[in-house]
């Protein structure tokens, strides 16, 4: 039933005061439009799910007419989901580009935009900072007392997370004798730029630093020596999941590399969204609509309609993720059932890792960051090699 799965769609004007009749009327009109858009989106997704492409195509013009990427949260959500549904129709009607080739083209042409938008997202919301801080605290505790540190980042992008770790490592009574970061990425040029920035920051803290760039995906790595530990070096692995592109390559290859590296800790961060590609299109659509409606609503509360950073984040990050999830099919999901981090935790346990709790200092400080009125779920956040 629709009532059981209707997303928490942002309703324009829902928070308006009742003291002004004009404002109240506008709020009611905005709420009615938002509800109508929600119904149109769900109906269009239902048509696609049942193979009625003509029916879906008949609905899209009205969605485009009522939505805009520069309006209310509801109008912005509908605009991006409408364009993703349109792209889905095109891919179903025309000869589709092979998914892996499409991902490669996206990586090459838009990686710089992704990086810039992610940096903007990091600056205007606490979400990315929170995941960085919590993972860094767990990594810091795992490296307690170690002199030689090796961090493997499965998808390093701009390396925004690591200056924070460098800072707390440099604050130890005895600084590490060496800090080495192995970063995977799609472009050797961008990896080089990331390595240079991290080296400059490490130097400002007096940390001996080395950057090891690896172009490609960890699951497709042939030469395991590219990620191996040096003598007396302790390795940790960080893995941030997202829906922009396939991060890791082969799942079996990833497990093979992690087993060979034998890190002391593996930290994983993922979006709180289960868009398992083995499920129905309609179920995936509703799950994505729930998730991104909340994000658009949050950005709409904190930033004005004309904020350039908000537009950049919504178009270059959220819009691309929505299109990838609905039109392209999203990053592959061979591990099915339950949340993705939990599934990977089960697979890592199978090859010799043990679950590690978030309890202790990481949980305490994370709870302080969350602030009053929010709670931190108690869950497994990493694995260590036994």
TrEMBL record:
Region listing for VHIID, in residue ranges: 118-183
Region of interest (Leucine repeat II (LRII)), ranges: 193-225
SAW as annotated region, ranges: 327-386
Sequence motif LxCxE motif, location on chain: 42-46
Organism of provenance: Carnegiea gigantea
InterPro entries per UniProt: TF_GRAS
Any one Pfam family match given in the protein's UniProt record, by short name: GRAS
Protein's UniProt name: Scarecrow-like protein 23
Native organism taxonomy: Eukaryota, Viridiplantae, Streptophyta, Embryophyta, Tracheophyta
Family: Belongs to the GRAS family.
Top-level taxon of origin: Eukaryota
The keyword Transcription is annotated on this UniProt entry: yes
Keywords: Transcription, Transcription regulation
Sequence motif: VHIID, positions: 149-153
């Amino acid at each position: 039933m629709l009532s059981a799965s209707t997303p928490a769609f942002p309703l324009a004007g829902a928070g308006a005061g009742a003291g002004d009749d004009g404002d109240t009327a506008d709020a009611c009109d905005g709420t009615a439009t938002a509800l109508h858009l929600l119904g149109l989106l769900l109906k269009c997704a239902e048509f696609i799910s049942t193979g009625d492409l003509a029916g879906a195509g008949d609905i899209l013009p009205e969605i485009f007419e009522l939505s805009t990427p520069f309006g209310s949260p509801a109008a912005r959500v509908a605009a991006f989901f409408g364009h993703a549904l349109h792209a889905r129709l095109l891919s179903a009607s025309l000869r589709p580009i092979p998914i892996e080739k499409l991902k490669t083209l996206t990586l090459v042409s838009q990686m710089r935009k992704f990086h810039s938008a992610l940096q903007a997202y990091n600056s205007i919301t606490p979400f990315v900072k929170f995941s960085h801080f919590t993972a860094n605290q767990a990594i810091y505790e795992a490296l307690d007392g170690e002199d030689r540190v090796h961090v493997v980042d499965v998808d390093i992008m701009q390396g925004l997370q690591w200056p924070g770790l460098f800072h707390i490592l440099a604050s130890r009574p005895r600084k590490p004798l060496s800090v080495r970061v192995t970063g995977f990425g799609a472009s050797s040029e961008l990896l080089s730029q990331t390595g240079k920035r991290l080296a400059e920051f490490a130097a400002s803290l007096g940390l001996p630093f080395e950057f090891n760039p690896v172009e490609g995906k960890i699951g497709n790595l042939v030469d395991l020596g590219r990620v191996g530990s040096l003598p007396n070096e302790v390795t940790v692995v960080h893995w941030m999941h997202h829906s922009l592109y396939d991060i890791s390559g082969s799942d079996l290859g990833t497990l093979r590399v992690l087993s060979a590296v034998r890190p002391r800790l593996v930290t994983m961060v993922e979006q709180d969204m289960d868009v398992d590609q083995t499920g129905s299109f309609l179920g995936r659509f509703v799950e994505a609509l729930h998730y991104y409606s909340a994000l658009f609503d949050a950005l709409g509360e904190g930033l004005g309609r004309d904020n350039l950073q908000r537009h950049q984040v919504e178009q270059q990050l959220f819009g691309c993720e929505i299109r990838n999830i609905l039109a392209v099919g999203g990053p592959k999901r061979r591990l099915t059932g339950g949340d993705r981090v939990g599934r990977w935790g089960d697979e890592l346990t199978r090859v010799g890792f043990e679950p590690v709790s978030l309890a202790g200092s990481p949980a305490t400080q994370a709870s302080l960051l969350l602030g009053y009125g929010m709670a931190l779920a108690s869950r497994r956040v990493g694995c260590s090699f036994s």
